[in-house]
Amino acid sequence: MSRTYGYARVSSSDQSLQRQLDALISYGLTDRDIITDKASGKSFDRSGYKTLKEQMLHKGDILVIKELDRLSRDYDGVKEEWHDIQAMGVDIVVLDTPILNTAAKSDLEKTLISNIVFELLSYLADKTRRKIKASQAEGIKSAKNKGVKFGRPVAVKPPNFDAEVAKWRNNEQSATATYTKLGMSKTTFYKLVKMEV
User: C-alpha distances in angstroms, 16 versus 21, 50, 74?
Assistant: First the structure.
């Protein structure tokens, strides 16, 4: 006899599952049929999800989630989990995207839905990458226009540098005392000293 399970996840312990739980209960699930995790979707080492996938779900069952990204944080992870769950013979219901629901569908329809999911996720992943790249380029251009320099800052000698270094070279003070007086790090001090040799 097939069973229906719900899965809800948030990324951290201070986030609330309530919105997802309300949606799953409205679908008709009871608390005992809902598995939850408060863990990042980046990792599949989530106790609730592992128990659900490895011990509870069987062929003919239905897995209900509120949103597709509850399976994983990134698109490749979602594709992998979708494929695994379908291969187990378990149907998936995505409450926020009914067109992706495989429950009560023929094998042909399930294949078409899987293709839609994979194409959609590939498109979204590519769109996200392009958006990030464009945002980075815009940010760099804007910063350069404002005179922001990229890369490591050039070490600048303080006004009293030569006098203090002369004291150090004449053994009048230690290197530590010298770079402390100059208000610079040991690395910067020696870097500037080497440049003068």
Answer: 9, 21, 20
DSSP string, 27-70: HT--GGGEEEEES-TT-S--HHHHHIIIII--TT-EEEESSGGG
Q: Report how far residue 33's alpha carbon sits from residue 6's, in angstroms, rounded to the nearest whole number.
A: 6
Q: Where is 123: in which H helix or E strand?
A: helix 107-145
Any catalytic annotation for residue 11? yes
Longest dimension (CA), the chain: 90
Strand ranges (DSSP E) for 51-174? 62-65, 91-94
Q: Summarize pLDDT for 174-184 with one digit per residue, the tens.
A: 999 988 888 88
pTM for this entry: 0.61
CA 45 from centre of chain: 15
Question: Rounded to 10 degrees, what is the CA torsion of 141, 143, 144, 145?
Answer: 90
**Catalytic member of 11, 47, 122, 174:** 11
Give the integer Cα–Cα distance in Å for 178 and 192. 13
